[in-house]
Amino acid sequence: MALQQRVLEKLSVLQNLMASNGLDGLVVTNNIDQFYLLGFYFYPSETVLLLHAAGLACFTRQLYVEPLQQKFPFMHTFGHDKQAAAAMVSEAARLGLKRVGFDAEKESYMSGSLFKAAGFVETESFISRLRQVKDEHEIALLRESNRMAYETYEYIKPLVKTGVTEFEVAAEIEKFMRVKGASATSFLTIVGFGENTANPHHETSHRVLKDNEAVLMDFGCIYRGYCSDITRSWWHGDQEPAEYTKIWHIVDKARQSGIAAARAGVAAQKVDATARAVITDAGYGPCFTHRLGHGVGLEIHEEPCNDQTTQAVLKKGNVVTVEPGIYLPEKFGVRLEDTTVVTETGADILTRK
User: Fold this and answer.
1) What whole-number percentage of the chain has pLDDT above 90?
2) What rounded mean pLDDT belongs to the chain?
3) How far, CA to CA in Å, does 172 sit from each of 167, 177, 178?
4) Is the per-residue pLDDT at 242 higher than 70?
5) pLDDT tens track for 79-113
6) Integer Cα distance of 143 and 344 in angstroms
7) CATH code for 136-349?
8) Is the backbone peptide bond immediately before 44 cis, with ω within 30 degrees of 0?
């Protein structure tokens, strides 16, 4: 499907949501939401979109005007290097829009104050709701992004040898993904050795890998706007402690159980509970200190999440991680993570070839 057609279809769905909520206009200032709608990347705070029944207006930097006019001839593009939000408010008044909404959760204080003074109304995050369910085009990009992450794991594991530092391994991971076509990492790469693996969000450091130590790597890349996320853990050396072997297999069983529990129509809380029960029943419940997983898409953390408090019910097209872990402070930890897409019959693992 051509880009313009995908854009027009998304705008149509959003216009229907607006109409059903009594809105004749909708402001979009979040740059990730803008990318979702247009497939065009703006930096934060440099563009404002105004969607209304008759079309779409874009208020942005002058340097974007010509390429945007060529790419989206149906969009009215205005060059405003400064005061884009104020220009949008004036355009809404000129169009005679009566009830314009803006996403209060994503709005800055300054712009939000301007919009409220203009009589605009706070709305729920319509685009966040739409972004939760990925279409076939998005799933294809997520599949490729996560395939690249898995290929990176296969590449890097043989290179992790005694004497390397966490930073050196992280740099090699990131270089490999960029060479393969990634535009960036999807979050700060985590590489942990030894006792550092017991910290779920360890900050990669100059720590040197010694013989017979635990290794944990959590990383991902951005491919054409879409993120990947994978975690792998293993023992470096031939003297693997029995307890490490034990917790690795418990975590792997929890990972498999969580993936098996996920499908359209299942409560996300149940997916978390299913995997968590494996770890709790093995006596390590207090050592699993985070949620089972989170949504992945244009951002590395999106809804829905597989956690203990969510009210979300999984839908076909949700992309979520399953990442159980056991962490033994000052000793070592294990986390195994796959990114999956929810289907009617189960969850398809994306972090593979």
Assistant:
1) 97
2) 97
3) 9, 9, 10
4) yes
5) 988 899 999 999 999 999 999 999 999 999 999 99
6) 18
7) 3.90.230.10
8) no
The tokens describing 222, both together, are 């951005």
pLDDT of residue 129 exceeding 90, the answer is yes
**Cβ-count burial of 322 within 10 angstroms (0-12 exposed, 13-18 middle, 19+ buried)?**
buried
CB 26 within 8 A of CB 18: yes
pLDDT digits over 249-267, tens only?
Answer: 999 999 999 999 999 999 9
Residue with tokens 């890097």: 156
Structure tokens given for 336 = 């195994």
Q: Counting Cβ atoms within 10 Å, is residue 315 exposed (0-12), middle (13-18) or buried (19+)?
A: middle
Strand extents, DSSP E, 86-195: 100-103, 121-123, 184-185, 190-193
- Position 1 scores a pLDDT of 57
The yes-or-no answer to whether 3-130 and 136-349 have a common fold is no
Query: Integer distance in angstroms from the first to the last C-alpha of the chain?
Result: 25
**pLDDT band per the 50, 70, 90 thresholds, residue 2:** confident
105 exposed, middle or buried (CB, 10 Å; 0-12, 13-18, 19+)?
A: exposed
Residue 285 CB neighbour total at 10 angstroms: 14
Closest C-alpha to 177, from 206, 202, 155, 158: 155
- Domain limits, the chain: 3-130, 136-349
Does the model's pTM come out above 0.90? yes
- Indicate the SS3 state at residue 39: coil
The topology (CATH level 3) of 3-130 is Creatine Amidinohydrolase; Chain A, domain 1 (3.40.350)
